[in-house]
Design goal:
By secondary structure, this protein is an alpha+beta fold. The protein has a single domain, classed as Glutamine Phosphoribosylpyrophosphate, subunit 1, domain 1, CATH 3.60.20. The protein has 7 helices and 13 strands. Strands 1-10-11-4-5-12-13 form a 7-stranded antiparallel sheet, with helices on one face. A 4-stranded antiparallel sheet has the order 6-7-8-9. Strands 2-3 form a two-stranded antiparallel ribbon. The N and C termini lie far apart (about 35 Å). This is DUF1028 domain-containing protein.
């Protein structure tokens, strides 16, 4: 792939996912897309992982979004993955500092005090167009992150992943994000599909348990979600539980028989249904 097609800002190495108190717990094969549109004020985060929903609940977490996404309506969005802090200290720090208007680069410097910093993967993008990404040296390949901007528009993004089939999982997602037409959420959904079609993690297949009772095509993850927040959306009492414009969550235990065992394909189906409903 010709990387010159992309407007790169930063790249890094990637990760393995979720720090559990003293023992690491890995969210293998996780990729995510975070993006903002400074013109509309919308922020979006989407992700998929090869970790089953039952294991995410055991972290404990309600799901992938619950422990990974940091959403600050009217300010920006972030993702904390790989050796994620199960205590949520890192996530709360990112949230608080984003609300304070702190530069993402400075937030990343604060996070570096974490003794497990080199097992983490972070990405932060705000509506001022400030972006940063980090993938620790302790993360497993293929792992990387890319930050960029759509030329001549006020759309900024970061795409990252860890334990991927290849670097092309992220590079293809970047290409799809930049070439897609439509809204910011349309671009993010296209990027998620680009990563999925590039292979995600080859260890997560249609035969990997748990297997949903639905047709399956090219599954590279067990769960996937997409979330969009507008600047006027009410916040909750945490870093990602507000009343947002859109949240669609697909897990291996909520895929229905008429959908697809590939959660990214089902995410697309549910996203199109959401749009058709005029929401």
């Amino acid at each position: 792939m010709n990387r010159s097609n992309f407007q790169f800002f930063r790249t890094g190495a990637c990760v393995a996912l979720l720090a559990i108190v003293l023992m690491p717990v890995y969210l293998s094969a996780t990729w995510s897309v975070i993006a903002v549109d400074a013109r509309t004020g919308r922020v979006v985060v989407s992700s998929a992982t090869c970790v089953p929903q039952s294991r995410l609940i055991g972290f404990p977490a309600e799901g992938l979004m619950d422990i990974q996404a940091i959403v600050v309506p009217g300010i920006g969005v972030a993702a904390a993955q790989a050796g994620v802090d199960r205590s949520r200290v890192n996530q709360r720090l990112i949230y608080a500092e984003m609300k304070n208007g702190t530069d993402p680069a400075d937030i990343l410097e604060m996070l570096s005090d974490d003794p497990d910093y080199q097992r983490r993967q972070f990405a932060i993008v705000d509506l001022q167009g400030r972006m940063v990404g980090f993938s620790g040296e302790g993360n497993s390949a293929a792992s990387l992150s890319v930050q960029g901007r759509i030329p001549h528009e006020e759309i900024y993004f970061s795409i990252q992943g860890n334990i991927l089939a290849s670097n092309d999982v992220v590079y293809d997602a970047v290409r799809r994000f930049m070439s897609a037409e439509g809204t910011l959420t349309d671009r993010v959904m296209a990027a998620m599909e680009g990563a999925d079609e590039a292979g995600g993690d080859v260890r997560c297949t249609c035969e990997t348990d748990p297997v949903p009772a639905a047709p399956c095509h090219g599954r590279n993850a067990h769960v996937a979600y997409i979330l969009a927040a507008d600047s006027t959306d009410p916040e909750g009492d945490s870093f990602n539980n507000g009343d947002y414009a859109m949240y669609i969550n697909v897990t291996d235990d909520n895929i229905e028989s008429h959908e697809n065992g590939n959660p990214v394909m089902t995410l697309r189906q549910r996203y199109e249904a959401w749009k058709a409903a005029g929401r």
